[in-house]
Amino acid sequence: MLRLRQVYITSALLAGVIFGVVSAKAAAPQAPEGRCIDDWSVASRIVAQEGLASVERLASAAGKRIGGAIVRTTLCHEGGRYVYRVLVRNRQGEISRHNLDARHPLGF
Q1: What is the dihedral of CA 43, 48, 52, 57, to 10 degrees?
Q2: How many CA atoms lie within 13 A of 56 on its CB side?
Q3: Among 64, 65, 43, 67, which residue's Cα sits nearest to residue 55?
Q4: How far is residue 1's CA from residue 3's CA, in Å, rounded to a whole number?
Q5: Other beta carbons within 10 Å of 83
Q6: What is the pTM of this model?
Q7: What is the distance, to the nearest Å, from the Cα of residue 56 to the centroid of all Cα atoms in its chain?
Q8: Mind listing the pLDDT tens digit for each residue in 20-64?
Q9: Which of 102, 97, 90, 91 is nearest to 58 (CA)?
Q10: pLDDT tens for residues 79-91?
């Protein structure tokens, strides 16, 4: 009887651990509405899972389409969609702010 109880407890614990691991992997990180994510270890997973344009892709097109180099990019969740808040330095050294749709920024 004691042996059966040990097997039951071990099985229950193992099932709980497996469920926890599967649930953690299945749960996509998401920014709360109206919030921004400064931690790119979290933001990069959201970009991949949501199929958003990568920051690298955004940076390569920024010089041509925005007219400068990206200084800082932050991923935000606004109005039910993701946006990039971008600071851009132009050739004269001036900084401008841009909010870009993270799925199709700059028309691509």
Answers
A1: 90
A2: 3
A3: 43
A4: 5
A5: 20
A6: 0.66
A7: 14
A8: 433 344 444 555 567 899 899 999 999 999 999 998 888 887 767
A9: 102
A10: 899 999 999 998 8
